[in-house]
Specification:
By secondary structure, this protein is an alpha/beta fold. 39% of the residues lie in helices and 19% in strands. The protein has a single domain, classed as NAD(P)-binding Rossmann-like Domain (Rossmann fold). Strand 4, helix 4 and strand 5 form a beta-alpha-beta unit. Helix 1 crosses helix 7 and helix 4 packs parallel to helix 5. It binds NADP nicotinamide-adenine-dinucleotide phosphate. It holds the Pfam family adh_short_C2.
Amino acid sequence: MSTGKQVLVIGGTSGIGRATAEFYARAGHRVILSGRDADRAKAVAVDIGGHSRGIGVDLALPAEIAGSLRDTGHVDHLVLAAVERDQNSVRAYDLDRAIRLTTLKLVGYTEVVHAVAGRMTGGGAAVLVGGLAMTRPYPGSTTVTTVNGGVASLVRTLAFELAPLRFNAVHPALVADTPYWQDKPQAVEGALKRTPTGRLATMDDIVDAIAFLLGNRAMNGANLTIDCGATLG
Ligand SMILES: NC(=O)c1ccc[n+]([C@@H]2O[C@H](COP(=O)([O-])OP(=O)(O)OC[C@H]3O[C@@H](n4cnc5c(N)ncnc54)[C@H](OP(=O)(O)O)[C@@H]3O)[C@@H](O)[C@H]2O)c1
């Protein structure tokens, strides 16, 4: 991995996005990380150090995304990791929640690409973070399953339309050390029992997969499941 790349991480203030931003900043790249609130994103960038800076981008407000991203300069690597949690079911369908997550993860992710694609270099690449719920629904995952399935299709049309830029997605199962799961030991324990390897993926595992997809020029339009073998049985 050569240094000196400009890496834009949308949803880079927490969890997998933040771990990705840290990885690239530590390796000497210039990192722009975003959250909804610019001040929070700037504070996280200071914490991470290196050549990183924070900006505010709200994917639930797609009409404002291009303006929020106007000062990024060129982008070599783009990582889309933002999410807001959603518990939803068809029988008790919460329209506001469904519209919010669908807007954020499908329209919002696409609009970010629309906004920066013209500033991505020929060797540019992006990784979108979906999730295993795309093929493994769980109670309350109606919207999550739908949008992650959408992410799987989105990378294919992006790779097709915006060649030679490359687009891939990672689809993790439960990532044990993300902040979201810290206060849910029972769910983590349950997921652990379903893996033949006796372990769950960590943020480092996911960042490693993201770096592989961004760096390997043969990877394009791929959807990489990362589940420690949980779906084998
Ligand atoms: N954690 C897991 O086990 C797991 C499993 C499968 C898939 N995933 C996927 O992995 C990705 C990262 O998950 P995570 O658990 O690491 O995330 P997280 O810790 O919850 O962080 C979410 C990030 O999204 C940003 N964000 C939230 N709402 C936003 C909005 N409206 N516009 C722009 N940014 C927004 C947050 O920034 P602010 O709060 O600063 O705004 C934060 O940086 C997500 O796409 C998730 O679906 C995670």
